Amino acid sequence: MTGADGSHAGAVAVPDWLVQQDVALCPCGCVGRRRKASFLTRTIRGGSGILQQVLFGEDVAAAPGLLQRIDPRTKIVSLLALLVVAGLAHSMITLAALYALTLGLAAASAMPLGFFVRRVWLFVPIFTGIVVLPATLSVVTPGHVVLTLWHWHGVAEGVTTQGLLAAARVVCRVAASISLVVLLTLTTPWVRLLAALRGLGVPRIVVLIVGMAYRFVFLLLGSVTDMFQARQARTPGTPRHDGTARAFVGAGVGALLGKSAQLSEEVHHAMLARGYRGDATTLERHRLRAADLGYAAAVVVVAATLIWGDHVLVPR
Amino acid sequence: MSHADPTSHADPTPDPQELLVCRHLSYAYLERHPALDDVSLTVRRGERVALLGANGCGKSTLLKVLDGLVFPDAGSYTAFGAPVTEDSLEDEQMSRGFRSRVGFVFQNSDAQVFSPTVREEIAFGPLQLGLSRDETAGRVDDVLHMLGIPDLADRAPFQLSGGQKKKVAIATVLVMSPEVLLFDEPTAALDPRTRYWLVELIERLGTAGRTIVHATHDLDLLHRIADRCVVFSEDHRIVADGTPEEILRDRRLLVEVNLVHPAAAAVG
């Protein structure tokens, strides 16, 4: 049966306020009060940024460069060798040379140097800040005080030359090490990195779990972004930094956990449906070429030279 | 058109043309949310069967039973003459044979596309079934070209659109060349071009003699993608079985099972 207005009998009963032609609750425009984005907002936006960075990273890995041409297994072993050098070096000159080497490799691998340097130095303060700052003080590293902060029984205490040198050494060591890791991850497609780990004897199931976890991160990142944007779309003005934000985070974590459990079951079903019985086989098969052996030999020579040079510069 | 005789396919002698045979299946999630209630269905070789019904009527659950992913609380299921149970699929040979003959395209493509690259994803099934790397690589290339997506081969799944993910999900199953293809809501959430592409593919596979079972409530394209329709009621039972023409003609049935709205039925 159709009513005079064209509606059908038994249709949804719509409340009056929903059919009125008034504009929404606040008809006014800008009120001039602004609030900065909350920690939550910035974090979730940062998550979206990660996705873009990874997409850019895939472009770098596909670029025609020196490291892109090297077998990933060779790159992993070389990385480990150079990380050992970074760990053993005591001289600032050695560490600076190692860092310069990573910059050279980045340039030879068609990587924008500004991007590479920013990527590395973003992490350095996180890994070194807490450790290094106390080490600059005379109470931890005694020596010649260059910046007096307080006096203890008449003796000046503060930042020492020796402390600053030790801190600089740690910072350089961490910067060189992170640079090496970033070089590997940016010049190697994720799938080839996983295959290389498998080729180096990492158990198959570990590689499979790591690969799926990587995929899951992006699915969950997408879900988080969707949930946040859905909330934002229903939040007039700037979201407040109060209990509702914390409640949203709590509810979001719970919802994500549920989604994750459901998805993992579906993924497992999809694997079973295609014959998975607990032992995955991959398509990739790599063979070492002369260029790989040449690169490995060059790395060994450089590593040995750096270690020897370090011994000469800092006799022990 | 037959109306809900669950025992109509009961036959004590196995018929080689009867590929999938379900008898009196019942299944409940968490033992209290029923999904299938006394469902009997026989799928014959070369048939294109559409499982029709409203949301939550049990279509997807039946597809999972047909693919040996969930197991009924009551009733029996045999595929290619062999019983399919949790226990029988523990057998390496049975599992390998069954998995290579039945392919399942999930509704949620994200669940099916989990490898780091599209190429790895498509290669997953054949490699698990023991095909050599070279043969797998050849098949992967063939399927990529057949579906017109060779440019996606080295892309990561999170870089794909919904339609591309669906194509990749279909490729992951076609590469195994299964005898029976199960599709869960294949045309849902696809743009018109991808939707018609998929319809043409199902038609082509049907012509090639593949057996196809798909769950859908998309009635517009039914005549092209099915030659038999099995209708579920909202209380998880099969209430009708017939050709698309017969089912679409029965407006009262379609309204009853919530496949069309009474207003649409009055207009139609």
From TrEMBL, chain B:
Q: Does the keyword Phosphoprotein apply?
A: no
Top-level class of the enzyme under EC nomenclature? hydrolase
* Entry EC number(s): 3.6.3.25
The cross-references to PROSITE patterns, in alphabetical order and at most eight, read:
ABC_TRANSPORTER_1, ABC_TRANSPORTER_2
Which Pfam families does the record cross-reference, listed alphabetically? ABC_tran (PF00005)
Start and end residues of each ABC transporter domain: 20-260
- Where's it found, cell-wise? Cell membrane
Quote a single Gene Ontology cellular component term.
ATP-binding cassette (ABC) transporter complex
Keyword list, A-Z: ATP-binding, Cell membrane, Hydrolase, Membrane, Nucleotide-binding, Translocase, Transport
Any one GO MF term held by the record is: ATP hydrolysis activity
Query: SMART domains annotated for this entry?
Result: AAA
Give the UniProt family note: Belongs to the ABC transporter superfamily.
The protein's name is Sulfate-transporting ATPase
Q: Which organism is it from?
A: Pseudonocardia dioxanivorans (strain ATCC 55486 / DSM 44775 / JCM 13855 / CB1190)
Species lineage: Bacteria, Bacillati, Actinomycetota, Actinomycetes, Pseudonocardiales
